[in-house]
Design goal:
Blueprint (H helix, E strand, L loop, with lengths): L7 H5 L8 E5 L4 H12 L3 E6 L2 H12 L5 E5 L5 H15 L4 E4 L14 H29 L2 E6 L12 H21 L4 E8 L20 H12 L9 E4 L6
Parallel strand pairs: 1-2, 1-4, 2-3, 4-5, 5-6, 6-7
The structure holds NADP nicotinamide-adenine-dinucleotide phosphate (NAP).
């Protein structure tokens, strides 16, 4: 049908990421699950991890309905040995990772002076150290290929401060700094490092529920931002995307 532009539905089913391999940390549920599903719909082979095998298995079943290449493994992204084993097993099964989404994260809120050292380690290790560990494990393949996308899921809390946000904001401000520096370190190799800062999203995260769930961001809104980044024309990159709900709840 030369000369006739495609409908949105036709464009939607285009496998723009065919032959690409994506890895999504915390891909079992919430935002990570929505991102993994969208990348699979776009044709990518997808690897996911989390600590709960049952949730991973359920999401892997959903991914299998959309793409041929699926790999999942229970792994803790705060542990360097788990990260190394997961990344090498994913690459052995699917091939070199070309899209990395550092999504795994936890929320823990309340005044910093009331938190324990264990709380600090848990939040900082999950939200910030994991980004360092997983990126470090994946970058060699990307450098070899001379291309890749690393997308770090930060938060508007990585740009703002608020009462009770001490540990969480510290971790996400750290993600912002790490992402900006990695972007500079890696752009010369053809690797794009981006950060997405969503507002509050309707997930199981931190047990927090929006006042009006119908007005809250959905995990698919964040997945759409990931899609925009990975389908961006070569030669440029979106370094930071802020995602906000249209209507305030
Ligand atoms: N929801 C929001 O309002 C919101 C807003 C802005 C940014 N974010 C960010 O978005 C990301 C995803 O949040 P979400 O709302 O989707 O949370 P969620 O529903 O609680 O899901 C978190 C995911 O991360 C995994 N995970 C947690 N710790 C892990 C670890 N040590 N190793 C491997 N996987 C781990 C969880 O699986 P297991 O528990 O099985 O390990 C799960 O798959 C986080 O980085 C969060 O900070 C969320």
């Amino acid at each position: 049908m030369a000369g006739i532009s495609k409908t949105n539905a036709e464009k939607d089913t285009e496998k723009l990421l065919e032959n690409r391999v994506a890895l999504v940390t915390g891909g079992s549920r919430g935002i990570g699950r929505a991102i993994a599903i969208r990348l699979a719909e776009l044709g990518a082979a997808v690897a996911i991890c989390g600590r709960d095998s049952e949730k991973l298995r359920a999401t892997a079943d959903e991914l299998h309905e959309r793409t041929e290449g699926v790999f999942w493994q229970a792994a803790d992204m705060t542990r360097a040995d788990d990260v190394e084993k997961f990344v090498s097993a994913a690459e052995a099964k699917l091939g070199p990772i070309q899209v990395l989404v550092n999504n795994a994260g936890i929320g823990l809120f309340g005044p910093a002076h009331e938190k324990s050292e264990e709380d600090w380690d848990r939040v900082l290790n999950t939200n910030l150290k994991s980004v360092f560990l997983v990126s470090r494990a994946v970058v060699p393949s990307m450098i070899k290929k001379g291309a890749g996308d690393i997308i770090n899921i930060s938060s508007l809390a990585g740009r703002n401060t608020f009462a009770g946000g001490g540990l969480y904001c510290a971790s996400k401000w750290g993600v912002q700094g790490l992402s900006g520096c990695m972007a500079e370190d890696l752009r010369g190799y053809g690797i794009r490092v981006s950060v997405i800062c969503p507002g509050s999203v309707a997930t199981e995260f931190s047990g927090h529920t929006a006042k009006d769930a119908s007005k809250a961001l959905q995990p698919e809104d964040v997945a759409h931002a990931v899609e925009a980044i990975v389908t961006q024309r070569p030669g440029s990159f979106m370094s930071e995307i802020h995602v906000r709900p249209l209507r305030k709840s």
